[in-house]
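Sanity check. The docking grid for thymidine-5'-phosphate depends on where the pocket ends up, so I'm generating a full predicted complex first rather than guessing from homology. Inputs follow.
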Amino acid sequence: MQHRGRFITLEGGEGVGKSTNLVMVADYLEARGLEVVRTREPGGTPRAEAIRGLLLDPASEEPLDDDAELLLVFAARAQHLARVVRPALERGAWVVCDRFTDATFAYQGGGRGLDKTRISELEAFVQRGLSPDLTLLLDMPMAASQQRLEGRLDRDQSQRDRFEQERGDFFEAVRDAYLERAEAAPHRLHIINADQPLEAVQNDLRAVLERRLEEWA
Ligand code: TMP
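Predicted complex below; grid placement will be based on this.
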């Protein structure tokens, strides 16, 4: 029987280079003849993208309640899992996803300070045992990622979304929560030092992928 595809997630704070590196990871797997589905959270389907819009909308006339934020994240995830991730894995495709539930533990748990036991309960309810096979955590000190983010936002002339508007201590808490997750699950979650030239970051990513592909062969 063909094994189901593998589920790989990329994680990290704002401005750590997830998008660029997601392309590299997906290209690397495709070059090995694997079918790869590239996707992201919150989002990945039209309805889940609409929920993403609600989550990121900085409109301040009606603040979003923290519990509502948490439930919206998991509502988007349920839709994305049902429509994209599970069908892809079942047909043997590999899924490379920009953020997943580690982001919920980091942002809603660490950043917002919501109870992590409650997040675990929602995780069990929505995911029914499905979790990533490998998570690549792009990590860099806050000062470095904030500097990159500032540069990007200036260049794009775009408005900051609800999360990008948060303050430094929020992002420190996000980073700490991610590192705590990595410590608790060292086999699944690999910390990649993102505070180095892109080529060095990508060499590190390739080394992890190579080891894992051998292990899964
Ligand atoms: P992005 O900037 O990586 O596209 O992600 C959008 C934002 O959504 C980002 O600021 C982190 C946030 N987010 C959460 O707060 N919880 C989650 O579970 C996920 C997946 C993302």
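Relevant for the grid: The helical segments are 18-30, 46-56, 66-90, 101-111, 116-127, 142-156, 168-184, 198-216.
Also worth noting: The mean pLDDT is 94.
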